[in-house]
Amino acid sequence: MLFNHKIYEFEIDGRKCSFETGKLALKSESAIIARMGDTVVEVNVNTSPAKQEGDYFPMSVEYIERFYASGKINGSRFVKIERFPSDDAILKARMIDRALRSRFPSDYRDELSLIVTVMSYDEENDPVLLAINAASVALLNSRAPFDGPVSGVRMTMDKGEIKATYKSMEDVTSENVLNYVLGGDGNLFTMVDAACFEIPEEQVLKAMEMSLEEMKKWNAAQNEFVKLLEKKDKNYKSYALDEDMLTGMQKFLGERVIENLLKADKSVHESTKEEVYKEFEGKYTKLQMSEGYEKLLKKAMRKHVVEQKKRADGRGFDEIREMDAEIDLLPRVHGSGLFTRGVTQVLSIATLGTLEDAKMVDDMLGEKEKRYMHYYNDLPFAYGDVDRVRLSPSRRAIGHGMLAEKALIPVIPTVDEFPYTILVMSEVQGENGSSSMASACGSTLALMAAGVPIKKMVGGIACGLVTEENGAFHILTDMQGVEDFYGDMDFKITGTKDGVTAVQMDNKIAGLSMEIVRETFEKSKVARLEVLKVMEKAIAQPKGELSKFAPKVARASIPVEKIGELIGPGGKNIRELTERTGAQISVEENGSVNIYSMDQSSIDAALSYVKKLGLVPVVGEIYDGKVATIMEYGAFVDIAPGISGLVHVSEIAEGFVKDVRKYLNEGDEVKVKLLSKERDGKLKLSIKQVDAPKPKEEIAE
């Protein structure tokens, strides 16, 4: 038989779903097709023995979005095939990775490739949620020793009611206030990636608790499907460190392990490793000894926390490192803010541009514009490293940038309130844990310094975790680097004083219980309020005016039917207006017109013209006009684009006017009063009732 096709069909939330295998990718170790509605993803998992000695688990996760999935063609004129993953695809791959990675044995080192391909997208059922569940099934069906199942779900809030949803969601808004994606096994959480529109902690916790029951539905479906499949050999070569080596290294180093940990000096660690290499040369490889040294440091750190009730830098569990906030460090930028916590330090720079500067995003749903962006840059010097500069951001940098971006979306002013494109660049000056949270704080400072009227200040804090074998645990507020490396979780929460705006969590154990999660939120809120107090000392309110180096803006509105008249054939009119006034002009579909320039007079000139497009003439009002045509019986005067009226010869000047040209010429600028509007729309104007002109000969004399 050519195909060994297996399929399991089920329903989740009233949606028809299925897992199947045996029809596509026949050479793949584990190929799963998952469906939810008309959304279809293919997940392929392949493993191979480690090709070289390594001290980490080399799992790669790729999330590939094909435009054909939604019947679209790439919008680029020159490239019609998807060449590189979008930032959004990278973020989704990281989400899947974080949901699954902690469920592998710590001594597993085989190479593992997990590739998700979105094959069909119905614009209703979210492919990334389907992908997390399908990836879990694919791993269960592979030779990898995966401790599953793990499920992915999303919680949202509809009219105050918290519930699960499988619809695609992007940024949160005042209407869609909760986009909470979670991974877990129904009892423990393995991943959180969430955006919240200032949601109180108690509601976030309620959503997380409810998600556990939703996960169990997917777990049951995964288990039922796996029962249909042949079991595969999951034995693997263990790369666990030799206990005799660890014992010998501990004996050789003695108290130096804890001393080195507390010194936190990279050069001391390196010199100690060199001594270890020399002492045990020929018995073990350098990589094994290096990993062994790191394991001794990990044990020492955890023992210090449990027994001494202190952290490596001497802080208490709830103590935040010394903080500082400052604005206006850079003179010519539109806004800058520096946030420092310990040696973790981020300088954020805000730049304002026109709406034409908005980023165009082209994905499976089509094109859309993005007017608020945040990017995170971490160069080697931030770690004290000697390394080459990467010209493209790492996946970690993309993830950190998006986390800080999500953190501030709820407080960014609307386009009507602030018609600018906003870009914040966070330049990491020092990294020792929680730089993504420092980026959120730095972004807030930079935006307020730039005069962006954000609704509230946003701060963030990351918490670490040390667990004990007896189930006890210790939350470490304001996690630093060593606690990230040797601890059990990295739990980041941002928010205002009134609620949560973003959450991201990954862990190194099987998962986090609700008890751990609840305490983490409690401690994070207390810490966040302390962070906000420090930030408020630097700047309590957004500046009342923009930098003199930022473009000024004026906003007007014209009737929708006048848009074509403003733009002109092929953009002719708007180009001429830009050239004449020096202002940059953008028009929205609803008739809103934004005018930008560094020079106020340029804005005024363009604004005057644009306002005339929306002019509705009122009888008795006086208007600035330009003489368009001279006739024997008077002159036609334009008072706005497309609006003109007749100044009869009797309304030009006091007394008898024999020759109109003695008083007026084409191009003359005059003030006119609207006398009447006829039924056919014709306007009757008067010059003499405003300011009667004299004959040009008298003016010359």
TrEMBL record:
Name of one Pfam family that matches: KH_1
Q: Which CDD domains match?
A: KH-I_PNPase, RNase_PH_PNPase_2
Task: Give the record's GO CC terms.
Answer: cytosol
Describe the location of the S1 motif domain by residue ranges: 620-688
Which UniProt keywords are given for this protein, alphabetically ordered?
Nucleotidyltransferase, RNA-binding, Transferase
Q: What EC identifiers does the entry list? A: 2.7.7.8
Q: Which InterPro entries match?
A: ExoRNase_PH_dom1, ExoRNase_PH_dom2_sf, KH_dom, KH_dom_type_1, KH_dom_type_1_sf, NA-bd_OB-fold, PNPase, PNPase/RNase_PH_dom_sf
State the similarity comment: Belongs to the polyribonucleotide nucleotidyltransferase family.
Provide the protein name.
Answer: Polyribonucleotide nucleotidyltransferase
Native species? Candidatus Dojkabacteria bacterium
Taxonomic lineage:
Bacteria, Candidatus Dojkabacteria
